[in-house]
Hints:
The protein is about 50% helix and about 15% strand. The protein contains 13 helices and nine strands. The strands form three sheets. A five-stranded parallel sheet has the order 2-5-8-1-9, sandwiched between helices. A two-stranded antiparallel sheet has the order 3-4. A two-stranded antiparallel sheet has the order 6-7.
Amino acid sequence: MPIRRSIVGIDSPDRLSIALRDAQYLADDSLATTAYLALALAKPLLLEGAPGVGKTEGAKAIASILGRQLVRLQCYEGIDSAHALYEWNYPRQMLAIRQAGAEYVNIYGDDFLIERPMLEALRHPRDTVLLIDEIDRADHEFEAFLLEFLSDFSISIPERGTIRAEEHPVVVLTSNRTRELHEALRRRCVYHWISYPEPAREAEIVMMRASQVAHDTARRVVEAVGALRREPLAKPPGVAETVEWAEAATLLHEQGAPWPSAFRRAIGVALKDQDDMMFMEPRLDEILRGVAA
């Protein structure tokens, strides 16, 4: 197995952690080590965790520090290989045939090939990072197809022959663990579970990503979000909601809303489900008073 000890100057987990921080993504030592090993071993990186913990943002940050285009394949129930690999542009082929008349025209050339994310990553492995997002939403048939793709990074197009990647592309898979993934797929990846960040780290994320939020406000928001996540909510707030809630409450406070009313009035940025709103309504003021004290 070829090992890439250095990729774009990143030759250790510590260097990757610093580069991710420069890309405004805070990774703990475990995540930085796992991501570095995936790059070094040229294996897909499988990030699993609850929605909103930063899996997709992690893939974006990796693409950013590698200086590559992020090619995203959003999975959903019913997705098939045509949406993931390629399609022929049939209307354009028909038009070309009509315009050619009696002349020969190659209707299976690149001009008529519509690249989908996996084919694009296969043909341009040095310029792209392939994000296969929420693979747990795809059905088992697509997962089996993906297994073949990740085995040798080649596909066969009947009209064109086999296309093989010049080198293993950088691939990041994410899963919200709504169902178990096939064991064979896991074995082909380097795996990392992402939890919600510790309060101090999440406050640091808020300060890094929010435009004008005081440190004390960041601390209060993180404490309130932590309290919400301990409740049995259908859609607990993720890290992005923490950052946005801090920014929204700060905006209202600057316009005259006192604390903790500013948090209260901006709650729609954190909670985005009516049942969750109704569930928290009787106790929300108590939680917000506690963090504002």
